[in-house]
Known about the structure:
Blueprint: H1 11-20, E1 40-41, E2 44-56, E3 61-62, E4 67-74, E5 77-86, E6 92-99, E7 106-115, H2 122-135, E8 148-152, E9 157-160, E10 174-183, E11 187-195, H3 200-206, E12 218-230, E13 234-235, E14 241-245, E15 255-258, E16 264-267, E17 275-280, E18 282-283, E19 288-294, E20 302-308, E21 318-324, E22 343-348, E23 353-358, E24 368-374, H4 375-378, E25 387-389, E26 407-409, H5 433-607, H6 610-903, H7 909-912, H8 930-933, H9 956-963, H10 979-988
Parallel strand pairs: 1-14, 2-5, 3-5, 12-17, 13-18
Antiparallel strand pairs: 2-12, 4-11, 5-10, 6-9, 6-11, 7-8, 7-10, 12-15, 14-24, 15-16, 17-23, 19-22, 19-24, 20-21, 20-23, 25-26
Amino acid sequence: MFSYKSRYCVAAAMAAMAALTGHVEARDIDLQSIGYFQFSPLPPSLVSQTDTLLLSDSPEYVGPVGGTLSAGTINGNGRIYFYHVNEMDLPHKIAIVLENQTAYPTSVHVMRQLKSVATPDYFAAGRDLSRKDLEQPLNESPDARPLYSLSIPPQGRQLIFSDLENTPVNRDALFTGIVDIKTEGPIFARVMMLPMGMDPVDASHWVKNLSIDEIQLRGTYTGAKRNMEVTTPFDTALGGAFVEIGNDREDTFINGVDEMQNKAFVRDRGNYGVSYTLKIPTKGNEPFRLYFNPLGGPYSGSFTVKALHQQGARRGQTDTRTYHIGGEDGISALGEGTILDSRLLGNYNAGDLLTLNFIPAGASNLPIRFLLIPESLANPQKHQTIAVNVPKDVKDILGHPTQGGTQIPVGPVGGKDGDKGAVDTKKSTIESPAKRAETIAHEETKKLSDKAVADVKKEAQLKKAKDEKEALARKKAEEARLAAEKAEMLRKAAEAKHAEIERKMAEKAEAERKAEEARKAEAARKAEMARIEAARKAEADRLEAARKAEEARLAAEAKRLDEERRIEAARIEAARKAEEERKVAEAKARFEAQRAAEKAALEAKRAEEERLAAEARARLEAQRKAEQEALEARRAEEARKAAEAKAALEAQRAAEQAALEAKRQEDARRAAEAKAALEAQQMEAARKAEEARRAEEARRAEEARIEAERKAEAARVAAEVKRAEEARKAEAARIEAARKAEQARLEAEARRAEEARKAEAARLEAQRRAEQERLEAARRAEEARRIEEARRAEEARKAEAARIAAEARKAEQERLAAERAEAERQAAEARRLAEERYKAQLEAERKAEAARQQALAQAEIERKAKERAEAIQRVRDQQESARRRAELARQQLEAERKAAQASKRTPSFSELDDIHGDTSNVTIPNAVSIDELTKPRPTASQNTRRREQRQPQLSPNQQNVQINPVANEPQQDQMPYTPQNEQQNDEENPPRLYPLG
C-alpha cells in the first residue's frame, strides 16, 4: 500500500511500456485522440477536515512474531483503520483494545464496524472494504444510534469489534478494516496482531510494540473526514477538464504523530483511511461524461456519484449511482502500466452539481483523476455536418424564402468529400432550385450512410484483428508458461545432481578436514605447552610488578590524603579569616559612609533657618539612634554568624579527623588483606613453579623420545622412498598399458552411471516427495497436539489469571484505600506546611520591603542634603559678589556727590534726597546714578498700573533687611536675596522630608 506522486513526464514511457509488455488496455474512451494532455485542471479546495484517525499500516507485513501494531489517543469522534499482512506460519487475528488512562469512567459508542475478506489477493481485500464503506455508510446525524456502547472504568481496558476474534488471518493474507467510534473522554486505543485463542485484554499488558517500517504509515491524525469542493465550475463549452485527488499539492496529505515513538512526526502518504466528499459544480449548454482515470498505478475500488439537477424538469431531484472498479468487471485493477486507462462513471447534464463519495482503496495507488468530457468531444460523430451553399431563390422545406449563402447541415464537416456538397449555381437549371438542393442532400446523405457502413465494417475488421492478436498473445503466453514449467523441471533435476556432487565433495572435504584438524591439534598441543610456560613466567612477573605497584600506590595514596588534608585545613582557615576580614571591612566601610553622610547632612542642616535646623537635628538624632540600634543589631548578627561559622568549622574539623581516622583504619585493613593475598599468591606461584618444573622434565623426556622416533622414521621413509621409486618405474609401464583399457571401461561405466543416476534421481524424487508428505503429516499432527496443549494451558492460565486478578483487585482496592487515606493525611499536612511557609514568606517579603524603603529614604535624604548644601554655598557666593559690587557703587556715588557739591551751589544731593543727614551711616538700596534721578517724573497718564500692582510699602523688619548692603545690590541677571525670595523659593521647591524607617 503506497502512494505514488504523479510524474507527468513519464506518461509516454508508461504507455510505451504497456505496448511492449502486451498490456491489455481497459479504456472506455481513447483519451489520447481527444486531447487528453490538453485538458484543463480544476483544482479542488479543502473545505473542512474533522475527526481523529488512528492509522495502522506499519509494519504492513507482520512477522516473525505478533505484537502491538499501532496505538494512539482518540477524544470525541474517531476512526481506527488497519491494513496488515500475516507473514507468520500460523493463523493470527487482529484485536483492538481500548484503555481508559484517566481517573474517571468513560463511555465509548461504537457507530460502525467494517472488515474485508482476508485473502492473498491484495486488490480484492482493498476493493471489498471500499465497497462496504459505501454500502454501509456512517450515520452522522446527531440522533444516530450506535451499534453498542460500553463504559470503561478508570485504568480499565476493554475489547471492541469482537467479530475479529473469529476471523483468522492465514499466512500471506491481507486483512483490513474500519471501526468508527465516539468517546466522551480521551481513550487510548491499541491495534494488535495475536495468535488465535489468546486473550487480547490480557495480552495488551505485556505484548511488545513492533517497530515502524520504512513506509511509516501509522499514527494519530486529524482529518478522518475530508470535504473538498471545486471552486471554478466546469464549463462544457471550454472542452475537457480534470479534477486530481491525492497528489499532495491541491489535495495535501494529512500530518500526525506516532505516540509509540514519543510523538514522532508522520504523514499519511495517500490519505488512506480518510473518507472523501468532493463537490464539482458544472455549467454550459450540452451534456457531458464523467470518467475515472488512475495516474499512480493500479487502482481497484468503489465510488458513489450523486447528481443534483439544477435545470430542466427534474430541477431539485438527485440521482445516486455507485460504480465498482475491478473484480466484477473482469479485471483485477485499472491502470496497470499506463495512465490512459479510464472507466465511465455516468452521463450528466450541464448545470448538475456532482458529489463524489469514496475512501482511497487499500492496495491501490494514488493520485487519481476524475475527467469531465463534453459529449461533443467524447462522441464527435454525433455533431458532424457539412455546408451546402443554397441560391437566393431557393425556398426551404416549409416554403419560406432563404437568404443567399445559407448553409444547411447535411454531411460531415472537414471530411475528404466535404467540397462535393457545394452546389454549382452556374449550371443550367433544368430542375427547380429546391428540387436540385433536395437531390444533392439525398446524394450526400447516401454517401454518408455508405461511409458509415464502411466505417462499421472497418471497425469490425479492426476488432477481429485485435481479437486475433489477443488470442495469439494468449497462446504465446501459454507456450511461455509451458516452457517455464519445463525449464523449472530441468532446473530441479540439475539442482539434485549438483546437490549429490556437492555431498560427495563435502564428504571428501570432511575427511581432509579431520586429518588437518588432527595435525593442527598436535601442533596446538605443543604450542599450548609453550604458551603455558610463557604464561607462568609472565604471571609471576606480573604478580611481582603488581605487588610493588600496589605498595607504591598505597604509599602515594596515604601521602596524597595527608597532603590533601593539610591543604584543605589551610584553605578552610584562610577562607574563614578572609571572610571575617571581609565582613569587618564591609561593616567599617558602611559605618564610615554612614558617618560621612550624617556629618554632611548635619552641616547642611545647620545652614538652614532655625526651624528647619531644629527639625533636621531632631531627625538626625532619631536617625543616628536608629542607625546605632541597627549597627548594634548587625554587630550582634555578625557575632552570631561568626559563632555559628566557628562551630561549623569545629564540627567539620572533627568530621574530617574522624574520616581520616576511618581512612587510616581502612588502609591498614587493605594493607593486611593485600599482604595475605600476596602470601597466597607466592604460595600459588611456588606450587605452579613445581608443576612447571615437573612438566618441563616430562616435556624433555617426551622430546627425546619423539626425536628418536623421528630419526627411525626418517630412515624408514628413505628406504621406503627408494623401494617406491623402483616400483614406480615398473608401475608406470603397467599403468600406461592399462590406461587405454581403463579409458574404454570408464566410458562404458560413465554411460551406465548416467543411466543409474537418472534412475536414482527418479527414486530420490519419489523418496523426497514421500518424506515431505510424511513430514507434513507429522507437522500437522504436532501442530494439532501443540494447539490442544496450548488450549489446555490457556484455559488453566485463564483460571489462574482470574484467581490472581481477583486477589490482585482485592489487594489493589485495599492498597488504594490506604493510599487515599495516606494521601489525604499528607495533603492536609502539606496544606498546613504550605500555609506556614506562605505566611513566613509574606513576613519575610514585608520585612525586606520595609528595609528597602528605609534604604531608599536614607539615600534620598543624603541626596537632598547634598543638594541643599550646594545651594547654600551658591547663595553665599552670590551674596559675597553682590556685597563687593555694592561697595564699589557706593564709593563711586560718594565721589560724584562730593564733586557736585564743590562745583554747584544748587541744592545738594542730600537735600534732593529723601534721606536726612542723620542717616549718613545707612546706604541706599538699589542706588542709581544722578542722570537717572534727574529724569522727568512720569505723568499720571503714564502711570496706569492699578494700586495693588504698585510697589508695596515695606515693614520695618523688611527695611532693616533691605538696608543690608550685602543683600540689596541690584544686579542685571540676579535678583537680591531676601526672605521673600527665599520663601518663594521654598514654596516652589519645598524640602522633601523622608521618615527614618
